Amino acid sequence: MVILLGKTDMRKMLSREEINNNVKSIKKQVEKFVSFEGENGAIIVNNADWLLDLNFVNFVRDIGSLFSVNKMLAAECYKQRMETGLTFFEMSYMLMQSYDFLHLYEKYGCKLQIGGNDQWSNIIGGVDLIRKIGKDDSFGLTFKLLTTKEGKKMGKTEKGALWLNPSKTSPYEFYQYWRNMEDTSVETVLKMLTFLPIDKIKELSNLKDEQINEAKKVAAFEITKLIHGEEEAKKAEDASEALFNGQGSLEHMPTIELENTDISIIDAILLTKLAPSKAQARTLINQGGISLNDEKISDINYKLTETDFENGYAILKKGKKVFYKLQK
Fold it and tell me: What is the number of other CB atoms lying within 10 angstroms of the CB of residue 1?
């Protein structure tokens, strides 16, 4: 079985070193769910091992001749890119992914390829390729992608992508993402990303108005527990309860330790990466998007003082949902 996750934007060109580092990180994440030990343990292979030495002329003759360009352009994965420009490299991606499936089929007996439903065309390309060489026992399986009510992929936070790596998205931020999801996403998220009994999911999903927040808390805890472990999930839950309900502990929320508390509000925003530039930090303040200890900051020249650190820390907030603790 091969598992693939796709994307709809132009693929970034990575060095071999970057790819190897990514593989190590992916394995570390996947081994929480899949065992790599024993005779039947999972294996990770790198398609560079068989793609880099391919002869181009032989490849386009033996493999490329089996693909119809007209049929490829009708695929959703290509239609979405036609307006912004489709490079030959992007165009050949279906051929390479299909050839990967063929190689894995022949070398490892891999008969099933799994991916998001945006990978349907590429997966079917591989199944068709294997059948064109006379084999009929390969298959593709796709799963529904998590999307917002606008149909966009879920997984975007205030800083960009929602990462499984805790060094890129802390367990607290990961927890808060699910805690703050749209009401309409609760049932789908619980069904797709937790192992709760279906009756419990229906019960939680039927909650209305303010009560739906209880369902979000359950989802946030369960998903964070799966990815980061129960201890980190409890820490994130505790910090969230302290912020929103005045209960629990702030110890585990994202924290920036300050060498000098005599800094401007602009510098504080940049340190916490709530804005990428001074200009955007000023815009946030002018739009009323920044609070310090629950007090709106309206002065772009505001400087933090000892009074702001009365408890030994200050809470910097962007909007209603993004918090940072500034620790003396």
Answer: 12
